[in-house]
């Protein structure tokens, strides 16, 4: 019998990413998106950590859909900015701004900062919540640095300006498989899927 879970996001790329990893693991799980259920208001992401915000989103989805839910909260921490934007990564340039505005603001804030001080990391916390209240968390970290200029068309968010350790191109220039293998979200999702496989 196929297990159904819901990914608490309206981001089609995140949904595709999770489906890709689940499929590669060969487990009989259907990954639904929020669009497959009646709409509900987005919960306020009031947490001060990625883990807190991931749990807020997963709890809301499990309650509203009646299906076990998985949600992630992720962002970029920049050394020069005292680990900001952090949990504010998606709203760094203001609540109404988009990926492009956020990315450009970060580049502007690091204007003139030398390469050795542009250290950064992508962080992802992934939460699993069942309608019965069971909760689990996984975390992934991808260290690297912020590039001086954008490059690449793949990925989303800050990918066009982030260069992972061991690479000389941005994560937006990597193939899906290359990015999945090292990314913060890829790490967290693989840990989750490995655990899910053990439950089957």
Pick out the low-confidence regions: none
Q: Which percent bin holds the helix content? A: 25-40%
General form: globular
* Alpha-carbon Rg, integer: 17 Å
Mean pLDDT over the full residue set: 92
Biggest beta-sheet profile: 7 strands, mixed
Global structural class? alpha/beta
Description of the molecule:
With 200 residues, the chain is of the alpha/beta class. Helices cover 32% and strands 24% of the residues. The protein has 5 helices and 7 strands; from the N terminus they run E-H-E-H-E-E-H-E-E-E-H-H. The protein has helices at residues 12-25, 50-65, 99-109, 176-182, 184-199, and strands spanning 3-7, 29-33, 69-78, 84-85, 119-129, 135-146, 162-164. Strands 1, 2, 3, 4, 5, 6 and 7 form a 7-stranded mixed sheet that branches. The mean pLDDT is 92.
Give the helices and strands, then pairings.
Layout: E1 3-7, H1 12-25, E2 29-33, H2 50-65, E3 69-78, E4 84-85, H3 99-109, E5 119-129, E6 135-146, E7 162-164, H4 176-182, H5 184-199
Please tag this protein with its features:
24% strand; single chain; seven-stranded mixed β-sheet; 200 residues; globular; 5 helices; alpha/beta; 7 strands; 32% helix
Q: What's this entry about, in short?
A:
It is built from five helices and seven strands, in the order E-H-E-H-E-E-H-E-E-E-H-H.
């Amino acid at each position: 019998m196929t297990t159904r879970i819901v990914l608490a996001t309206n981001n089609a790329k995140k949904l595709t990413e999770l489906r890709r990893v689940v499929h590669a693991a060969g487990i009989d799980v259907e990954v639904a998106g929020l669009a497959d259920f009646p709409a509900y208001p987005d919960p306020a992401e009031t947490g001060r950590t990625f883990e807190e915000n991931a749990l807020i989103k997963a709890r809301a989805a499990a309650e509203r859909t009646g299906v076990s839910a998985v949600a992630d909260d992720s962002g970029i921490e920049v050394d020069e900015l005292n680990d900001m934007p952090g949990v504010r990564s998606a709203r760094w340039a203001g609540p109404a701004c988009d990926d492009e505005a956020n990315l450009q603001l970060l580049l502007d804030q690091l204007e003139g900062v030398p390469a050795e001080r542009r250290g950064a990391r992508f962080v992802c916390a992934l939460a699993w919540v069942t309608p019965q209240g069971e909760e689990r968390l996984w975390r992934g970290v991808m260290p690297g640095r912020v590039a001086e200029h954008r490059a690449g068309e793949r990925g989303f968010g800050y990918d066009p300006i982030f260069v992972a350790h061991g690479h000389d191109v941005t994560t937006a220039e990597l193939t899906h498989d290359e990015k999945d293998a090292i990314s913060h979200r890829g790490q967290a999702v693989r840990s989750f899927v490995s655990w899910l496989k053990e439950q089957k």
